[in-house]
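Good morning,

Both structures are done.
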Amino acid sequence: MFRLATLAVVIAVVYSYGVPQAPPPPPQYNPAPAPQYVPPPQPVYRPIPWYPVYWWNDYYWDSWESSEHDHHHHHHDEDRPSCRNLWTTCEGWLNKSQCRQADISYYYEKNCKKAVIKCNNYGRQMQLVTGDGVFLAAGTPVTKVATCNGRGGWKAETPDNRVVYFDAVRCVTMAR
């Protein structure tokens, strides 16, 4: 057994004599350090522009429009384009039992008069249409904002993004 082990060692030494040595290992790989995490810049906080919140209670709108607050707004009136208040009428509607008058509140935003038009649900689905019968919105209840167009009338977008001009609105109950 010892002879066999010695023979194996001798054969290994003889065969390895002509074999070149393995190349030295490459130098240690040191990649560039990973970039440090830089947090994004802090956002600039600005006051949010005032937009009316339509689901506030009606007391807010009534008190805002009341005469006790008129002194806050009268000095700007000469700078603003004038628009007559919207009419809300059921005149000309064939089925008067389906027609209701809209609730309308007004406010100014950046010297532009706007109207918040609301159709309370009256227990049914409602459509908001112009005096000419152009469909503006539907739902339970319906709320739409119209903008003064500067020439005495009002404008709003329809659900298909068309701009329509009008001076009267009405609420119509939808058929069940």
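Second structure follows.
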Amino acid sequence: DSDDSEELVVKSADKAVSGDLPKSDAEPASEGCTPGRLKSIHRSSDASPGALDKDKVCGSRGIMTPPREERCAPEGTSSPTPRPQEAPSSKHPHDAGQGQPPPGYLTQAQVDALLKRQEAQFQERLQRVSQSSDQKEKDLHSKMKEEQKELDELKSAVVEVTQSREALLKMLEQYKDMLAAVVKGKSTIDKDQEQKFKEVELQRNQALEDLSNVEAAFSDVHSKYERTKQVVETLRRNEEALRGAVVEYENKIKRQEATLVTFQKHAEDKMQQASDEYENLKRNTDQELTKMCALLKKAEVKIVSLQDQLDSKSRDNQELTLLLDDLISKMGPST
């Protein structure tokens, strides 16, 4: 979703910098935007790509950004859409009507804040994923150590049970030999051997009971070993899944960083193109202004000349009127 929103921003920036905007929107809103100052801004942007000092940008319209409707991020993303700000009013009369920025356009400071905010979000997301992965890996290793320790204990118990079983089997063999000897000498020592036989039988029964208990314990240990083996296998699969998720997040972050670098480079190219177009427009405007000033000066000179002629004619008419009145007054009495 963030990749789609960045593509929308790039396309909108292309439209804003290209010739699709009206002429009044492309002109600067501040009288401080001179060609020399724009060249210094261009040199500073070449010295550190992607970083423009907002103090060097003329007014609040140093860079034109796409309209607010085109910069809306898709649903579910966190890309902010800053509100447009008003540009400072122009001081020149010929800049009247051009001081207000078009609705939906951003300043360079807002674009920088947007980029910094996105980078902070990416860093925060990477840090959360890394911390979660490290914690899960630590828990997994700790649990594996505990399971391995329990497995070692179970193995040692199995060894002890096996040794005890072998000892019991040897003891049973000895008991069998003793029983055979008792049977052979039964005629002479019947009572004593019968008592001993009962004792041996009791011991045999006890040994068989112990053997049964040992076999049950061995079966229990074996079942625990199988369950532990399954748990270890499950933990191993979980570890592999977590490692795959970490690699996927790292690749996604790298792609987003590459997209951000491409967008910055594209924006710098468009700013250079806009600066060149502004230079041409400024040069043409200066020529037209010089021409209009010359015509105005010529008209003022002509007006002054006509005013002098009018004053001269008025004085001549006044003098002629006085002469005529004088002649009429002199000729009046004689008639």
